[in-house]
Design goal:
Shape of chain A: globular
Number of helices of chain B: 14
Radius of gyration of chain A: 26 Å
Number of strands of chain A: 0
Structural class of chain B: mainly alpha
CATH superfamily of the largest domain in chain A: MetI-like
Oligomer: heterodimer
Distance between the termini of chain A: 41 Å
Order of helices and strands of chain A: HHHHHHHHHHHHHHH
CATH architecture of the largest domain in chain A: Orthogonal Bundle
Number of strands of chain B: 0
Number of domains of chain A: 2
Largest sheet of chain B: none
Largest interface: A-B, 94 and 90 residues
Largest sheet of chain A: none
Order of helices and strands of chain B: HHHHHHHHHHHHHH
Helix content of chain A: over 70%
Radius of gyration of chain B: 24 Å
């Protein structure tokens, strides 16, 4: 930008009048930004600020107002055993999904990274769950899980079940069943992330390992996994952030039941919203926000620490 | 050596086919269920004996899915071009112009990507009521046009474009809008396609906001119609639910087949989204 006058003189073009130049520098950027600022300001920033405000009020959505109650809403959720149950379920859900999301797609990526015939078709077939609308995925699995469904049949035949069972209605298995849907839906997506990581590993690393007589397993644990560290971090962060917001899989299969066994933080917020306790919902939403930010920061710290370790 | 290689290959294919059964199996079972004739028991056998399209016809005619399909199509078809336009406009000065407030605007936009929708859905619900957007297509579209993620994605794309092209266009006397539209935008077409795909996927299958905002059945999208239909999850209704599920998935499937390579390259671009 600063070099402009010199260039203009050299090419003998009429210099731009000062007034227009000032407008170009100070007004034009905002014209580009205008539609987005209006929309994001109105339908994102404003409701977020309102949510902060509501969490300190006893807001009545019908009256459209509420009185200031300080930290009462937070006190209420922190003494609510259903809130703690929801938080526990969210953490248990994450602990189940995280290792599966980290390792299963990695195996898929290694498989479809082989130079063999038909591998492109397999990539596409593994990606299908990713493009399925979440509502459809949830309903498909609800059908598979039903008492006379194929999963119950299969588990009866192998001898895991004694009688036809719907895993979604048992409080001991419901959360596991729900997390399987999440893992299934994400497999192909995280596979692609790993595939990008795998393709950045130079081939000759494997070739020299081959010459040194390293087995496939050794190559996987000593080369592939360490070299995939950035992808592993990325997949973990994405899993944690997405997992905290898990909703459709649960809302459409168990609705949070049986007896709260699958009520996660978001289901808790949704239930509070439905019973018009919007201030409680906002306060719980803030807790969710803090957790999401916390997870991102922790992960960022871990990444930079790991990079420091590598450098040292 | 050769037979060892062959054995390895057979294991590899066997494993890959097994995984295919896991990822594609649920679709096939749903499809089989969707084409079962009325007389056939839902769990009699996996493969239908007399395949029929009757359940699809019922979904369209009796279960209102023609309306839901139309609503979803209208919302999606308007959301995509508007989102591309607004995001690619907003991202340009954030990538290329030097003006007061740029870093603040950029930081604000990026930080909103972390905020969960569930935090602000209640105030948003009230706002849409006050603005008369409840049970309207506009109420759904407005949440999909101009997204923080889209602006971020487009900005990344602009940063990869070499500056020289724009500078020579300025010398020819073009103004900023002209340069953006004629020079820069054609160069980031692949990113526009990626963003179009993200917008399509986000809008077509969106559930929570339409669930809150569209309370009249004449305004339901496919997701909501499907969820409502599944309230009755009895055996008698499963064939219809399956047919409606397949109907909801077909457009995404067609677009996936059409723009496959953009889906794959876009997946890594979208990794920042979380």
């Amino acid at each position: 930008m600063d070099r402009e006058p010199a260039i203009i003189q050299n090419t003998k073009i009429k210099p731009v009048p000062k007034k227009i130049k000032w407008r170009m520098k100070h007004i034009t950027p905002w014209l580009f930004l205008l539609p987005s600022i209006v929309i994001l300001g109105g339908f994102l920033a404003y409701p977020i600020i309102e949510a902060f405000r509501w969490s300190f009020l006893d807001y009545k959505i019908i009256a459209g107002s509420g009185e200031f109650v300080g930290f009462n809403n937070f006190k209420e959720i922190f003494t609510d055993k259903y809130f703690w149950n929801a938080l526990t379920n969210t953490i248990v859900f994450l602990l189940m999904v995280l290792p599966l999301n980290v390792f299963l797609p990695m195996i898929l990526a290694v498989l479809v990274n082989q130079k063999i015939k038909g591998v492109g078709t397999f990539r596409v077939l593994y990606y299908l769950p990713v493009i399925t609308p979440m509502v459809v995925a949830a309903l498909m699995w609800k059908m598979l899980y039903s008492q006379s469904g194929i999963i119950s049949d299969l588990f009866l035949k192998i001898g895991i079940f004694d009688s036809p069972t719907n895993v979604l209605v048992q409080s001991s298995t419901a959360l596991v069943a729900v997390s399987a849907i999440t893992v299934w839906k994400g497999l192909g997506y995280y596979m692609i992330i790993y595939l990008a990581g795998l393709q950045s590993i130079p081939r000759d690393v494997y070739e020299s390992a081959d010459i040194d007589g390293a087995s496939i397993w050794q190559q996987f644990t000593r080369i592939t996994i360490p070299m995939l560290t950035p992808s592993i971090t990325l997949v973990s962060v994405m899993t944690i952030i997405a997992g905290m917001k898990v909703f459709e899989e649960i809302a459409l299969t168990t609705g949070g039941g049986p007896a709260g066994a699958t009520t996660t933080l978001v289901m808790y917020i949704y239930t509070k919203f439905n019973s018009l306790d919007v201030s409680i919902a906002s306060a719980a939403g803030l807790v969710l926000l803090v957790l999401a930010i916390g997870a991102s920061l922790l992960q960022m710290k871990m990444t930079s620490k790991r990079e420091d370790d590598l450098r040292a | 050596m050769n037979s060892k290689r062959l054995r390895q290959k057979i294991w590899l294919y066997a494993l890959m086919i097994f995984i295919t059964v896991l990822t594609v199996g649920p679709f096939l079972i749903t499809l089989f269920m969707a084409v079962k004739s009325p007389g056939e028991g839902i769990y009699d056998s996996l493969i239908p004996k007399e395949p029929t399209l009757e359940n699809f016809v019922t979904a369209f005619q009796k279960a209102n899915f023609a309306t839901y399909f139309l609503n979803t199509a209208i919302v999606t078809c308007l959301a995509i071009p508007l989102n591309l336009l607004f995001c690619s406009l907003a991202a340009y000065p954030l990538a290329r112009m030097d003006f007061r407030g740029r870093s603040v605007v950029l930081a604000l936009i990026i930080s909103t990507m972390m905020v969960p929708f569930q935090l602000y859905m209640a105030p948003l619900f009230q706002l849409s009521g006050e603005l008369g957007l409840r049970n309207t297509h506009v109420g759904l579209i407005v949440m999909q046009v101009s997204t923080a993620f889209g602006i971020f994605l487009m900005r990344q794309a602009y940063l990869r474009v070499p500056k020289d092209l724009e500078e020579s266009a300025y010398l020819d006397g073009a103004n900023k809008f002209k340069v953006w539209y004629m020079v820069v935008l054609p160069l980031v077409k692949p990113t526009l396609v990626t963003l179009a795909i993200f917008t399509f996927m986000g809008t077509w299958g969106d559930y929570l906001w339409p669930l809150l905002n569209s309370t009249e059945s004449s305004k339901y999208t496919l997701s909501i119609g499907l969820a409502q239909l599944s309230q009755n999850f009895d055996g008698s209704n499963l064939k219809l639910i399956s047919a409606a599920s397949i109907l909801t998935t077909i457009p995404t499937l067609l677009i996936f087949i059409w723009l496959q390579k953009y889906f794959i390259s876009g997946a890594t671009d979208g990794a920042v989204k979380g």
